[in-house]
Amino acid sequence: MSSSSEQNIARYLGIHRVIEPRGTLPQPAWKLDNTPSVYPTETLIDVQKLHIDSASFTQIAKVCERDTERMSKHILDIVSQRGKMHNPVTGSGGVLLGTVEQVDEDFAQEHHLTGGDAIVSLTSLSWLPLSLRRIHKIHLDRAEVEVEGKAIFFRSNPLAKLPHDLQQALVVAALDVAGAPARVATLAQAGQQVTVLGAGGTAGLLTLCALRQKIGSNGMIIALEYSEKALQDIIDLGVADVVVQADATHPLDAIEQVRHVYPAHDYQADLTVNVVNVPGTEFATILLTKPDGRILFFSMATSFTTAALGAEGMARQVEMHIGNGYMRDCGSVALQLLRDYPALRAIFTKRFGTAV
Ligand code: NAP
């Protein structure tokens, strides 16, 4: 590779902003240069809010005993030490909301952006140089931090424009898991039988709606969920054909429950989507899928080793997809589902909405 094309890739990814250790990518780097003015190929965002990811926010709230003044100081310390909001304990980031201040021409063309557009990052905060002047307020109930700051986007970093017709908190919740419904829509086929594990969660509810649209009325959706509250939401959504209460960490029980609720039918699906939030559900996922079926492991708690060796031990030639959260639609599939399904919007409003 010529040194000029290496340089182009480095700039595209943002490696030129890495201070420590040199040569690594911005996400795993310990420290980034967060100077709030743009070099060529960069885009500057005026940042108004951070939505810190749940694992990170919970950890910070815990060490600061939910004292928002201490939490503010803790967050400002992380950002000044690392040049990004990358929690060193959890390794996770979150997303930001802001407006476009100065935009790189290529980036503007790719994302149809102009100065002043309101955006939400689809790139983790752990990748983006960030500088904070101050923190105005922390909302403990929704992991939201109101700030005054600047962030840098590189050409490789996806983002979405905030629509005007949906409440911001709903948009952020949907965009966090937008890869699930968008990917499911590319994997499912009309008339198929599909099972969703963790169907009552954020990703699960969006996935159920995406499936209904894709597989049509001849297809069959089996929604498996553990929590009582989430089960009721699945029923209220009215999209799944079969609703099963089961614990996906107990594979044989899960099969039994599906067979009990859906007797005289094959309990194995053409496609199974795993959107649970706990580890240990790989075996149930594989066993609930036809031997030559497909699986989408979207859950971050999935073990690649367990899934691969598990399928091997059960002689299943099942096709397994890892839930890469990025899809080219940049969240538009998920947001359209919120518009198409009023019952979905109502559940999201109940869970994430703010008083208007
Ligand atoms: P969520 O809202 O917490 O949904 C998970 C659902 O699974 C909840 O309803 C939960 O019930 C249920 N569940 C928990 N344990 C279960 C069990 N043993 N059996 C059956 N159901 C069970 O989470 P989410 O925001 O939709 O995210 C889902 C997953 O996607 C997470 O693992 C997340 O990390 C991952 N994710 C992946 C990407 C990616 O790029 N691949 C991006 C974002 C998120 P309870 O309410 O009882 O807990």
Describe the protein in words.
With 356 residues, this protein is of the alpha/beta class. Helix content is 37%, strand content 24%. Strands 6-7-3-4-5-8 form a six-stranded antiparallel sheet. It has a six-stranded parallel sheet with strand order 11-10-9-12-13-14, sandwiched between helices. The protein has a two-stranded antiparallel ribbon with strand order 1-2. Helix 6 runs parallel beside helix 7. The chain is globular, with a radius of gyration of 21 Å. It starts with a helix and ends with a helix.
Beta-strand percentage? 15-25%
As a whole number of angstroms, the C-alpha radius of gyration is 21 Å
Structural class: alpha/beta
N- to C-terminal distance: 54 Å
Overall form: globular
Uncertain runs are none
Oligomeric state, counting identical vs distinct chains: single chain
Bound molecules: NADP nicotinamide-adenine-dinucleotide phosphate
Read across the widest sheet, the strand sequence of neighbours is: 6-7-3-4-5-8
In short:
With 356 residues, the chain is α/β, with parallel strands linked by helices.
List its salient traits.
14 strands, single chain, 24% strand, binds NADP nicotinamide-adenine-dinucleotide phosphate, six-stranded parallel sheet, six-stranded antiparallel sheet, alpha/beta, 13 helices, 356 residues
Present the secondary structure layout.
Elements: H1 3-13, E1 18-20, E2 31-32, E3 43-52, H2 54-63, H3 68-82, E4 94-102, H4 105-111, E5 118-121, E6 130-139, E7 144-153, E8 159-161, H5 168-176, H6 179-187, E9 193-197, H7 202-215, E10 220-225, H8 228-237, E11 242-245, H9 251-261, E12 269-274, H10 282-287, E13 289-297, H11 304-313, E14 319-322, H12 332-340, H13 342-352
Parallel strand pairs: 9-10, 9-12, 10-11, 12-13, 13-14
Antiparallel strand pairs: 1-2, 3-4, 3-7, 4-5, 5-8, 6-7
Helix pairs in contact: 6-7
The structure holds NADP nicotinamide-adenine-dinucleotide phosphate.
The site of NADP nicotinamide-adenine-dinucleotide phosphate (NAP) has 27 residues, from helix 7.
